[in-house]
Design goal:
single chain; 430 residues; alpha/beta; TIM Barrel; six-stranded parallel β-sheet; three-stranded parallel β-sheet; 15 helices; 48% helix; 10% strand
Length: 430
Amino acid sequence: MNGLARFRIALQRALGCLLIVFTTSLPVQAETALSEAEIISKAQAIHADALVLDAHADIVIPSTSLSYLGEGGVSKVSPEKLAAGGVNAVIMSVAVGPGPRTPEGDADARAVAEEKLAAALKLVEDSAGGVVLATSAAEIEAAKAAGKPAILLGFQNARSLEGDVNALDYFYDAGVRVFGLNHLGHNDFSDSSRPLYDGATKSYEPTEEHGGLSPLGIAAIERINALGGVVDISQMSKAAALQAVSLSQSPVIASHSNVRAISNVTRNLSDEEIDLVGENGGVIHVAAFGAYLVALSDPDLLEAVKTVRVKAGLPEEYSYPYELYWELEDPAVQRAFLVEMRSTIGRGSVSDMIAHINYIVDRIGIDHVGIGNDFNHGSSIKGYADASQALNVTIALVRAGYSAEDIQQIWGGNFLRVLKMAEERRSGTD
């Protein structure tokens, strides 16, 4: 970001703060309410005009935990909620979790990926034209113009590739355009930001297995580029993420990652990773996930987190505060642990999201930040529990001093630019 742009955003934020201070000090309550009404009205207009895109949500299948979903077991990005929140597009991830690193385990992962892919395609089919499956930037824009929500497919965790880089072609041909190699635990392609915990031995995997990307992982990055897909570094280890950004011939994204300098968990991005994504021309999408948002730096809070973990039978040291609870054998202990941990840490809020967005903008510029919530896999904060409440983020961005152009970039413009650049690379290799 150049100095003029930084000054503009800083000035807008300062004026926004002055407006809030001024209006709240006025003795006439009607004028205060009018100012709030004007903010909301401005946000509504911006929201309606913008391409509102969520860069990461999970696909719901019968085995999806009800605790991840909305009331009545409904997807947090259902077509109805997308419409209610004015959300134009969502990247739905063909994601799989950790599992045995054996041929049988990889085959199970592939089966889950196939089930999720089929579920996403069925959602589109069942909508009878109401929801569009988009495979390009142009199709996303066309869906917006037609007033129809678009689904773009993503991919997460290379376990489901079954050790075969060429399997990326299969998923691309099925419509996937965003590719992330990692989830919880290392795999044969890349190290994870969250090493797996073995409940039987009560120990973690080594912090690194490959030192970042394995030869398979390097080949995968090259193939994603050649296909015209977007590389997603969310959930990679720091070393793997830095390698992926450096290797990629197209800008990368982090589809659902927050700032480690604010919330110090390994799942979030360090300043070094943030800077390199910016240099690469990529985009970091901030997630509405409380444990990635709240500032885990207060010594008393850290001690409270350790106490809850020890009580549940987990080690004091952790890469992520309430990670790996499924390693606990007793379901009742699992539930009690989650309830107590969430109470200890707090849910997080839209204001916390804005703090992470501000940090990224101040560090690498407005061109490099977006929103990717991880809905249907644990995300839910005050004021933004599902897609129906997306306008609250736009209202908060207006309050923070961002212009209409800035907000349009944050919500979808930046991602669309990256996708178009990836598509151009594919056309150059045909």
